[in-house]
Amino acid sequence: MLTDEQKHEFKDTGWLILSDVFDNSEVEMLSEAALEVLERTGPEVGREADGSPHVCWGMHLFDERLKALTHHPAIVESSREILENDIYIHQSRINMKQTNGSIVAWHQDFGTYHRVDGVPDPRGIMIAVFLDDVTDVNAPLLAVPGSHKEGLVSTANLDPSSADFEQVSKYRYDITTETMRSLVKANGLTSITAKAGSVLLMDMTVVHGSTVNISPFRRLLLYINVCPVDNRGESFERPEYYAARDFSPIEASSPEGLRQYVAAR
Ligand SMILES: O=C(O)CCC(=O)C(=O)O
């Protein structure tokens, strides 16, 4: 159960970190699952320029361990408390930054969800589960505190010559340097660091991005983006691994729902 202080922090800053949600054995089991799913060969996997996989959208559709994670009580209950409603998963993804793993440009997740997937309102949470320690040296998420209060500040950035145009970048809405400058002048810019096993809950309108990882340390995160069930995507342009078709409320399991997969290793 979140405290009033935590709820206030989420509302005011735009995010909240919960420490020690998953223990080492759960982190190891989830990391194994994520690495296996990244071996998939379909279009749901995004690759670095050298062909190595770094993202898989819709992870919970492809692996029962990752699906079980989305039902973990810490994830479901905390999101329900913040959104004051039952929730569905609009999108999930694995995001791995190896050494030299590439940048994620400044953006708001809600930008694409609203303009492409037809999610009506900026009500939703980007949940990140940390499977590696993330410090200031291995390309942490960078985010502008309070930027969710500005609404949508991103604009379309269409470059049909980019290699990932069809799969990714035709759906991209970037934030100009000028906009970033004024947002950061007013609000500052923060790196989001946490130990493996932590969970980040972030308003999905917060402006965020990350740099190239030039450190020797891997940075593996799992994302689960949830919305209240009365805020469903209304257009179905993108495949299900990008944008939900199933709007059933996510039920919280007991913590054993995930532990059974640890025991089975
Ligand atoms: O993990 C990151 O560095 C950023 C991921 C992200 O913001 C996204 O996939 O929308």
Question: What are the SSEs and their pairings?
Answer:
Blueprint: H1 4-13, E1 15-18, H2 24-37, E2 45-47, E3 53-57, H3 59-62, H4 64-70, H5 73-83, E4 87-97, E5 104-107, H6 109-115, E6 125-130, E7 141-143, E8 155-156, E9 173-174, H7 177-187, E10 190-192, E11 199-203, E12 208-210, E13 219-228, H8 256-263
Antiparallel strand pairs: 1-11, 2-3, 3-4, 4-13, 5-12, 6-11, 6-13, 7-10, 7-12, 8-9
The structure holds 2-oxoglutaric acid (AKG).
Describe the structure.
The protein is of the alpha+beta class. The protein has a single domain, classed as q2cbj1_9rhob like domain (Jelly Rolls), CATH 2.60.120. It has helices at 4-13, 24-37, 59-62, 64-70, 73-83, 109-115, 177-187, 256-263, and strands spanning 15-18, 45-47, 53-57, 87-97, 104-107, 125-130, 141-143, 155-156, 173-174, 190-192, 199-203, 208-210, 219-228. The strands form three sheets. A seven-stranded antiparallel sheet has the order 1-11-6-13-4-3-2. Strand 2 and strand 3 form a beta hairpin. Helix 2 crosses helix 8 (256-263). The longest helix has 14 residues, at 24-37. The chain is globular and about 50 Å long. 2-oxoglutaric acid is lined by residues 93, 95, 104, 109, 141, 208, 210, 221. 2-oxoglutaric acid binds at residues 93, 95, 104, 109, 141, 208, 210, 221.
Highlighted features:
23% strand; four-stranded antiparallel beta sheet; seven-stranded antiparallel beta sheet; 265 residues; 13 strands; 8 helices; alpha+beta; 27% helix; binds 2-oxoglutaric acid; Jelly Rolls
